[in-house]
Amino acid sequence: MKFIKNEAVDFIFAFRRFGIRNKSKNVEYPRLKEIDNWCIKYEKELSPFLVNDISILSKKTILITLFLFDIIRNNPDIKTSNDFINELSKISASDFTSTFKNNLLRNLGEDFSVEEIYNAIINDGLHPGYDIKEEATLLHGFLKNPQDFLNRLISTLTQFNQAIYLPSINSFKSIYDEKYNWHNNFLSTDSVSYLKSLGLNSLIQEYPNLDDFNFYFSLFLDDDVFALWNNKSVIIGAANDTKIIQFSAKNKSDIFFSSLGDPKRLEIIRLTSQRPWYSSELATHFKLKPATLSYHINKLVEADLLRITQGEAKRLYYTLNKDALKTYLSYVSQDLLGLTN
Predict the structure, then answer these.
(1) By C-alpha distance, which of 16, 100, 30 is closest to 59?
(2) 35, β-bridge pairs
(3) Whole-number pLDDT of residue 314
(4) Among the listed residues 83, 65, 117, the one whose alpha carbon sits nearest the alpha carbon of residue 237
(5) What Rg do the C-alpha atoms of the chain give, in angstroms?
(6) Is 300 helix (H, G, I), strand (E, B) or coil?
(7) How many C-beta neighbours within 10 Å does residue 188 have?
């Protein structure tokens, strides 16, 4: 399992990120300062009319972003921002309205009202902290005049692409590669932990096999996550690495302290750090029955703190996994003291 690289996906989320523009108020999980600075720079350079149109078509209407993403998802040949705008230009007014009525806002009648759109958004659970009534009103106007809307959307995206996106995208290449490699490595090596750290537990429970899902990475999605279950797509923002690191630190810290929740297990760590110990030696040392000792040993083995090796006469002996212990201590420092390497 790995992330799909697609510049067109980053383009539509760059459009949305610039439309939002405001800095994150979450001190614990900050947005990327490079993108904050990018927004400030171009907001000063652009006409207020273009800035306003970008905000209306991105910040205030999340379903427009989903509509744009669906175009890319359904056409694997779209790779760049120019590819995307060319494809968008081919979409007819009837295609636009049918996509909304049959996919994004299901079960809308022919003569739909603002209230019906509002209820459809609520029923689909698409209400992450924005003004739903405002979006319903805007979408009602767009769907009643689809060709005028498409013309406005194409014009705004074209201006954004030429004036903002293309002139600046190369300056983000190094940070994109760094963030992509970090996220892709985590997803490919431990996808369950990765998704849990982003609060996607319910996705894992409902879809134990995620091989059918497409995972996209976006620098400009920043600290956000889009999980589109119906379309089996997940888009992860680059700035979520801080959240993942802190979640992993807490999780590893919890496992570490749980594994050492008995003085005997702490003593086993001390003993096996000096030399290998056979299970019978440990049982004699602690004056424990084999079954009781096995319980304590298994706790440490599950946490990868003990290594098992077969010795003479097929006896098993245990040694401390010092590398794992050092890793746990590093996570504990991150979790409890906020320290990083």
Answers:
(1) 16
(2) none
(3) 60
(4) 65
(5) 26
(6) helix
(7) 13
Q: 225-228 and 214-218: which strand pairing? A: unpaired
35, 222 contact by CB (below 8 A): yes
Provide the token pair at 34.
Answer: 């490079």
With a CB cutoff of 8 Å and minimum separation 6, the contacts of 78 are 6, 8, 71, 72, 84, 87
Match 């800035």 to its residue by tokens: 51
- Burial status of residue 230 (CB atoms within 10 A of its CB: 0-12, 13-18, 19 or more): exposed
Strand partners, 236: 217, 225
Contact 117, 139 (CB under 8 A): yes
Q: Which two tokens stand for residue 332?
A: 């504990």
- Which two structure tokens, joined as six digits, stand for 151? 């013309």
Adjacency order of strands within the sheet including 233-237: 214-218, 233-237, 225-228
For 200, the token pair is 């996607």
Measured CA to CA, the distance from residue 81 to residue 11 in angstroms comes to: 6
Q: Yes or no: say if 7 and 177 are a contact pair by the CB < 8 Å rule.
A: no
- At 251 the pLDDT is 67
User: If residue 307 lies in a helix (H) or strand (E), which one and from where to where?
Assistant: strand 306-310
Q: Work out the angle at residue 269's Cα, subtended by the Cα atoms of residues 264 and 273, and round it to the nearest 5 degrees.
A: 145
Q: Which tens digits make up the pLDDT trace of 40-80? A: 999 999 999 999 999 988 888 888 988 999 999 989 899 99
